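Quick entry between incubations.
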Amino acid sequence: MAEADPNWVERLVEPARVHKAVYTDQRVYDLEMERIFGQAWVFVGHESQVKEHGDCWSTMIGKEPVVMTRDSKGDIHVLYNRCPHKGAKLTAEGCTKHKPMFRCPYHAWMFRMDGSLVSVPHRHGYDGTSFDPDDPQFSMTPVARVENYRGFVFCSLSEEGPDLKTFLGGAITSMDNFVDRAPDGEIEVAGGVQRVMQRSNWKIFFENLNDTGHPIATHESSFLAARKTSKHKLGGEVPFQLHIIEGNGEAPEFWESLDLRAFDYGHSFMTAIFHAPKGKISEDYKAALDTAKGKEEADRIVSMNRHNTIIYPSCSPHTGFHQLRVIRPISINRTMVEIFTFNLKGTSEEYWQRTITYSNIVNSPSSTVMVDDVEVYERCQEGMESDGMDWISQHRGEGRDNLLDREIQSEGISEMPIRNQFRAWSHYMLGTPASIPTGGGDS
Amino acid sequence: MLTSAQLDKPIVDSDLQREIEHFLSYEAHLLDTNQLEAWDSLFTEDGMYWIPLEHGQEDPVGMVSIAYEDAILRDVRIRRLAERHAWSQQPPTISTHQVTNAIVTAHDPTAGTLTVRSRFQVVEWRKRNFLRHLAGGYVHDLIKIGEQWRIKLKRVDLVNCDGVHDNFELFV
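Done. Structure below.
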């Protein structure tokens, strides 16, 4: 792409292919941090991570270190994690509990959980200066917008843009289903947060999440191994821990039969590939849900069985096994994925342990499944950095999408969700319309 | 567990100390020479291999881990490494384990059980410039069955367990 061309970004995306520069050009990455992560609603954390006054959770929104806090009135804030004095980060990565003030490690400026300045030492040193403790420039800076949808806290670094519900659009049903599955109506992050490093661009991971064409090829080693273990050690029995490995080896017709749905702003989901196993844990869970919600509603909740949902560009809930993977770009070819595991209030200890088992087997750094994903992501990154070819194909299922009302439906093996992500990508990067065309025409 | 002060002298005789140190070296040898079925057979039927996610983690079933594997999951890992299309093993990972500072912290001759804590350094090599250095402590809960020591639990406490990780393909 010629740098002299003012429309160089525009020329990177075509209807069914993208230029490799979207994954390899540092200027594209820098612009993404500004125009995508600087504008979109990005997942910060779950409200259960800051249950009480003085709790905080620090993380990154694009390249911005932020901290989510709970103040003395019970309100949640998201603040830039920097002291207004010399810029020092006020808290390290991760969670702290019950510390109702930030104290800067450099000169001991103190701040409340809402970011407001409490005190500065050597106060007389500021006598007669233009320092004003009530001036916001001497307090921690809040991000432009924060919204909490049923416990999921998102922020936007831009004053402009849709509200969170509009942004989530049709994908909001996955967020609802995530919470609705709790018999007591409440969920919480529990059991620790796993972190995996991928040596590849953040978009490669997103594209894979609804890529139904890859499991048979990529995951052959783990699903064949799981089948051999079943055959040779268990007489053909397939317990839960093997089911969630060998399920990737379903026949091509299975993947073709899946349903893919996509929405505005790059979101999408695919229907389930793993099912909750039969047995006492599942039966007890369903009975608890029946009691809490009524059988009809409980049936509706558990029958909404989805695999990965994509909330572009920051996270991916797995509603059925209560995982949320959060995507943090580190650099153009490094992506950190944080895996949050959720406990559903009103479920048994055994149910929780099964959720943990899923995290350990499918999402942990030791996963025998994910290891081949991470390998192919890295090979894509390395291959695209070569000058051998310029374009990346997204042609699978092109032209066969069903346009519904603010929603696209496609056959199971379509690359439609990837094309939908690049529709959103272009919207953020170029200011083109966010809405997907509908069956009734452009909205 | 015994306090540090109680461990200022060995709690087992030097023959048993040597036997246990040899067991740890032998286990590492099996890993480094890719004799993974033989390594796996060191475990009892219900033996577990555990890499906690957090320092001092006590609970392997109610908290996530880096790995918590029973005989079934270890078997999948071993079989996967031998699969033709284990893409992340092209080329395969080579590892070398050093195990030192073995201290027997518990020994019950009647029950035949023994706990040994040690320190390890593992270097893994796969491709290009990606040489990975892992370090930390092992805790082996052992039981003597016949003449053989077997592993009830191998706990791997990485110094950076709470960090951001590349994949763990082999056993640490």
